Amino acid sequence: MAPTAYKQPERSSARGMGFAGVTRQTLASPEELPASWELRYFEFEPGGYSSLEKHRHAHFVVVLRGSGRALVDDKVVSCRPFDAVYVSSLAPHRWMNAGEEPFGFLCTVDRDRDRPQPLDDPEWEALRANPDTAPYVF
C-alpha cells in the first residue's frame, strides 16, 4: 500500500489539530477482510507529530521502528520498537518522533469510528498546566 496523507490540511486549523511529517498506510480494512477493525501504519519523519485530538473510538498501537513519545491523557510515555500503547475512548493524545530516524507504528481501530475532535478548554488548560505534558500542547 502506498502512503497517503495523514489528514486533510483543511481539518488542521482548529487549536491543537496541526500536524507535520506524518504519513498513513491502510494495511487491512473491512472492505478487504471480514473484520470489524482496520489496521494502519503511521510513520513520522524526524520532528514529525500528529494532531492533539480525542474521539470516542479507542486505539491500540504497537511501535515498529524508531523512537517517539505519546501524550495520552495526562502522561507522556517514551516509545520504542515493540512497545504497545492503548488510547482509551475520549483520551487526549498526540504522537511525536523523538529521534533522528523515522518513527513508525501499527494502529488498530474500529471500522466504524467518529472523527477526531479538538480538546475542549478545560482539557487544553489542564494539559498546559501540567509540566510533563505542557511542551507537547501546541
What features would you describe in this structure?
It contains 1 helix and 9 strands. With 138 residues, the protein is mainly beta. The protein has a single domain (18-136), classed as Jelly Rolls (Sandwich), CATH 2.60.120.10. The chain has a 6-stranded antiparallel β-sheet, with no helix packed on it. The longest helix is centred in the C-terminal third of the chain and has 9 residues, at 121-129. The mean pLDDT is 93.
Q: Which structural class is indicated by helix and strand composition?
A: mainly beta
How would the global form be characterised? globular
Question: What's the number of domains?
Answer: 1
CATH architecture title: Sandwich
Number of strands: 9
Determine the CATH topology.
Answer: Jelly Rolls
Discrete helix count: 1
End-to-end C-alpha gap: 31 Å
Largest sheet: 6 strands, antiparallel
Outline the low-pLDDT stretches. Answer: none
CATH class: Mainly Beta
